[in-house]
Amino acid sequence: MKISICQINPIIGDFNHNLSLIIDAAEKAKKSGCKLAVFPEMALMGYPPRDLLEKPAFIDANLKYLQKLNLSVEGIYIISGYVDKNPEKIGKNLINSVAILRDGHMLGRGVKMLLPSYDVFDETRYFEPAMESLVFEIKGKKIGVTICEDIWNIGDIEEAPRYHTDPVAALKKRGIDILINISASPFTLSKACRRISVLKAASLKYGIPILYCNQVGGNDDLLFDGSSMVVDRHGRLILMAKEFEPDNIIWDSEKDYDELTYSNVHEEELLLKGLVMGARDYLKKCGFKKAILGLSGGIDSSLVAVIAKLAMGRENVMGVSLPSPFTSEISRECARKLAENLGIDFREIPITGMFESYKAALSPSFKGLKEDVTEENIQARIRGNILMALSNKFNALLLTTGNKSETATGYCTLYGDMCGGLAVISDVPKTLCYRLARHINREQEIIPSDVINRPPSAELRHNQRDQDTLPPYDILDGIVEAAVEKNLSQDEIIAMGYDSNIVRDVMKRIVFNEHKRRQAAPGLKITSKAFGYGRRYPIARGREIY
Fold first, then answer.
1. In this predicted model, what pLDDT tens digit does every residue of 153-167 receive, in sequence order?
2. In the predicted model, is pLDDT for residue 262 greater than 60?
3. Nearest Cα to 396, choosing from 309, 524, 293?
């Protein structure tokens, strides 16, 4: 029996689009001789729909399109995720479901048993958990279907088990021959290896092949890498779909396969592909065809410009240099050279005159007061206004260019360099930005070498350097990772060998800049804990640092 694992890129709430993706993939699977086509979790509506689930009309539309799907394809079994209404009077109104369809008939329905409610996941807000998973039979093979989290409770993987029940163990007791898991599992660095470990552990423990079908694409801040795969009953990885693009793989139950050695490409290459996909999908799914960004001649804006060009094409990207009295000639030249290397539209709009006008208008109120961060922020906000004006005029989405190190410590200006619709690298630490830049330049110089080699500076005052305010980035990034991703306390981080004064200063900056992050553009999540939907801290709070 041949089974097609169909890795599609749905648009949340675009039922027509998603239905066409499913129908097209199912028809191709049928032509390839497959008996069954498998699609991801919530394939009809896209994941995560979040509070769209609270709209009854949205739920009704998803059920209507499930019926359309059922009537649209003949001659092949289809497994697809969708959302159903809870038939019970007790509990949440909805259930996260999967259906097995064939020739206008729903042959069975299953429900997700384990509902994640950590980090970016909030499924207990909407769904009632199931008591039993879907089991059906095709050509003498008994097949069990679980949904995403249901497979992550194997028990011998880091951070697991989270739950008292193991849906896979329950399915094994029901005598299944094959396990299928449909997922919408977001990407983070190193997650692909963890997924493979989970599937291998389950297949070895229960002696069954596992077919894993994951969503691909960018939906708001989340990146879905796909990486659908098949692990045989001996725990061997035998098939794997592409990363960060739609794909399908066909498994033949009667065929012998060689084991795949998972080729974990350079982390930088994987991350670059994910950021490009995330930026492209965010722009296109939001209806934008063009992107715009400020080019400072620094590492961050250079990296975002490369991502934008790869995502949207050079003809759809505008880079704008906005030199002030403190902008060095080398920064202006680096911005210009980068734009030439990328072939993108380049503009230079000096802001010195506007800055002087601001200072003149404010001079009566500021009389007798020294210049300080106020004047630095005015420059950033002038730039933000100009970039937003260009964004409006050309209907181009403004991309912000701040990295995770700056976002963590508040080394950014509200309504200035934080202006924009998407924070492309807000979850990428500064040290990783440099690694990405060197990876981009591995074959030829795209990002000018001066951008990479000279000390980073905001250039908002004479002879300014980032390290005037922040510790060296290799130290800062280690502290931020420990505090944000690992939730370690001040004392625990100091015990790791970091200077106590630096740790206390960084921790204060992280805590007291929550108000800035709350007002930031959504950013693409690539680490286990990003500043966004999955990290919820109060703004108004005591001064104690935990």
1. 876 565 557 788 899
2. yes
3. 293
